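Q: I'm building a small set of examples for a reading group on sequence design. Run inverse folding on the following structure and report the sequence directly after it, with nothing in between.
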């Protein structure tokens, strides 16, 4: 299997690491391990997400995200391995434009579109919620609706959408680091009319547990290991 090439840059400082357990219909079926590092030019998030049966799409995703010091995404690399096939997608921000190069089965596709300051990026790891929460403040009852570039299967290309985040409650919950004050958010895509999902996040915006619906019932992902070094 090919891999994502190591990031080349200056000296980096470890900020945080974690591991999520992934569930489908109440059964554990995978995990995601991730790290956040700070470099002179910004932050780098890297991780690997693997799922197995009974998940409906057993696969492996390796990803790396580059960010400014203000947590604004500047690039995303994805290597998705599924069913003996690989898709490699390289995304980058360039002067208000988001550019994508997709490599699959010897073919190359390219995509580009506007990336204004108000636009967010969404991809299938909860670290993108952490990125968003690092730059947006929510009181209980507060909400933000914004344009988003949503990245996902089958080619890890971009689908422009509008997303809505709403903070619905705050209380102390148990985490791998002990009891901590957290907020619960509901996430919907208004244009699709989908049910949406919800999650708890700590004061740093790290997602502690997510749920497959708007209510905190069926667990989707749960943070089971977590270290923060600053």
């Amino acid at each position: 299997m090919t891999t994502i090439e190591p990031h080349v840059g200056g000296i980096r400082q470890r900020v945080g690491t974690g591991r999520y357990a992934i569930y489908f219909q109440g059964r554990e079926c995978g995990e995601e391990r991730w790290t956040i590092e700070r470099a002179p030019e910004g932050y780098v998030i890297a991780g690997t997400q693997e799922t197995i049966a009974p998940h409906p799409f057993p696969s492996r995703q390796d990803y790396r995200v580059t960010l400014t010091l203000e947590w604004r995404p500047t690039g995303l690399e994805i290597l998705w391995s599924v069913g003996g096939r690989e898709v490699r997608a390289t995304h980058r921000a360039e002067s208000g434009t988001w550019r994508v190069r997709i490599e699959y089965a010897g073919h190359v596709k390219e995509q580009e579109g506007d990336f204004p300051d108000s636009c967010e990026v969404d991809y299938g790891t909860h670290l993108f919620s952490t990125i968003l929460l690092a730059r947006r403040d929510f009181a209980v009852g507060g909400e933000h609706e914004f344009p988003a570039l949503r990245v996902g299967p089958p080619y890890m290309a971009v689908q422009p959408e509008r997303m809505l985040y709403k903070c619905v409650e705050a209380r102390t919950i148990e985490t791998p680091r002990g009891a901590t004050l957290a907020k619960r958010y509901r996430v919907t895509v208004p244009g699709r009319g989908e049910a949406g999902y919800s999650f708890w996040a700590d004061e740093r915006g790290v997602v502690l547990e997510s749920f497959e619906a708007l209510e905190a019932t069926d667990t989707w992902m749960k943070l089971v290991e977590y270290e923060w070094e600053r």
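The chain is about 5% helix and 60% strand.
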